[in-house]
């Protein structure tokens, strides 16, 4: 059973959260990405809350700006330090350290930063198709392939992006689920994936109708996007090194985040376990939920 609640943080931010499992049990925290919301983790929340799968307390917050969470109007409020503060405060409310932080896409960007800056809060880290800031910066600065793959970011920072994304029943947003795959790159027609049912579409619409400015401000606040400005970005080494045991699951058909992002990753994350999943795209948690659950289960119990 999924429970919904609103968590008031000391910094004034409210996070709308979803949870499963009993309080007092070891905690798993799940962070979503764009253009999604906390509901995408419901299946895994319920799975890992079951006694036979560990009996964890599982929490999936909506990041600031998403769904019913606070959505500050200032773009600077979406810089990494503020997002990390939100998650650190959430973890403190549950008692730390968290057994495992599990994250995808933008949630992974927050998780990489949190794991590097405050590793004492987390026992283990699991990243699903979310680039490490060190390899992502390298590829954005030097790889034409990555610059092309990330060009969509420059659309998302346009001042009229909210209006354009809402047009035609959120057509462009739904196309995200068909465009980040190797099949699309090969020229195949866009076909809605089987997991994107009418009920799931309705869940997405409900989230998007609450506002798109907060989610888009993640891109507007980030210096990591294609363009001349990225050439001058420098990230201190101490903010890139992750000492935690880390599982990285990577759908190899993700054309927005090509496999070159994995090159050199072990230099930043020496205790990494990498699982490269063929036949999966950026949306691996939807395409192969049982496989994702099994890899996480193995990691949690090892």
Topology summary:
Blueprint (H helix, E strand, L loop, with lengths): L2 E6 L5 E7 L6 E5 L10 H8 L7 E5 L18 H15 L3 E7 L1 H12 L4 E7 L4 H10 L1 H6 L2 H5 L4 H19 L2 H4 L12 H11 L4 H9 L23 E7 L13 H4 L3 E6 L6 H4 L1 H12 L2
Parallel strand pairs: 3-4, 3-5, 5-6, 6-7, 7-8
Antiparallel strand pairs: 1-2, 2-4
Helix pairs in contact: 2-3
Q: Overview of this structure, please?
A:
- This protein is an alpha/beta fold and 302 residues long.
- It contains 13 helices and eight strands.
- The protein has helices at residues 42-49, 80-94, 106-117, 133-142, 144-149, 152-156, 161-179, 182-185, 198-208, 213-221, 265-268, 284-287, 289-300, and strands at residues 3-8, 14-20, 27-31, 57-61, 98-104, 122-128, 245-251, 272-277.
- The chain has an eight-stranded mixed sheet, sandwiched between helices.
- Helix 2 (80-94) packs across helix 3.
- The mean pLDDT is 95.
Helix content: 25-40%
> Looking across the biggest beta sheet, what order are the strands in?
1-2-4-3-5-6-7-8
Radius of gyration: 18 Å
Largest sheet: 8 strands, mixed
Number of strands: 8
Give the rounded overall mean pLDDT: 95
Number of helices: 13
| Strand residue percentage | 15-25%
Q: Give the H and E element order.
A: EEEHEHEHEHHHHHHHEHEHH
General form: globular
| Uncertain residue segments | none
Category from helices, strands and their pairing = alpha/beta
Straight-line distance between termini? 27 Å
């Amino acid at each position: 059973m999924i429970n919904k609640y609103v968590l008031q943080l000391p910094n004034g931010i409210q996070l709308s959260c979803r949870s499963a499992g009993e309080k007092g049990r070891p905690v798993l925290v799940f962070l979503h990405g764009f253009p999604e919301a906390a509901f995408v983790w419901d299946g895994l929340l319920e799975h890992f809350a079951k006694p036979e799968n560990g009996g964890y307390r599982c929490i999936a917050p909506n990041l600031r700006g998403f769904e019913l969470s606070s959505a500050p109007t200032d773009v600077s409020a979406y810089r990494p330090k503020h997002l990390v503060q939100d998650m650190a405060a959430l973890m403190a409310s549950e008692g730390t350290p968290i057994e495992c932080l599990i994250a995808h896409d933008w949630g992974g960007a927050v998780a990489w930063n949190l794991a590097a800056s405050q590793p004492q809060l987390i026992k283990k880290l699991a990243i699903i198709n979310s680039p490490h800031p060190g390899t992502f910066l390298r590829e954005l600065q030097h790889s034409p392939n990555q610059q092309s793959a990330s060009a969509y970011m420059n659309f998302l920072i346009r001042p009229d992006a909210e209006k354009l994304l809402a047009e035609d029943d959120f057509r462009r947003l739904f196309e995200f689920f068909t465009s980040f795959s190797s099949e699309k790159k090969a020229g195949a027609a866009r076909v809605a994936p089987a997991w994107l049912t009418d009920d799931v579409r309705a869940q997405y619409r409900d989230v998007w109708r609450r506002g798109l400015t907060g989610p888009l401000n993640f891109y507007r606040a980030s210096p990591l996007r294609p363009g001349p400005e990225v050439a001058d970005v420098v990230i201190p080494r101490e903010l890139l090194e992750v000492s935690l045991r880390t599982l990285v699951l990577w759908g190899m058909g993700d054309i927005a985040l090509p496999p070159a992002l994995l090159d050199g990753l072990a230099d930043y994350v020496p205790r990494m376990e990498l699982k490269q999943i063929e036949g999966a795209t950026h949306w691996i948690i939807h395409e192969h939920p049982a496989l994702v659950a099994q890899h996480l289960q193995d990691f949690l119990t090892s």
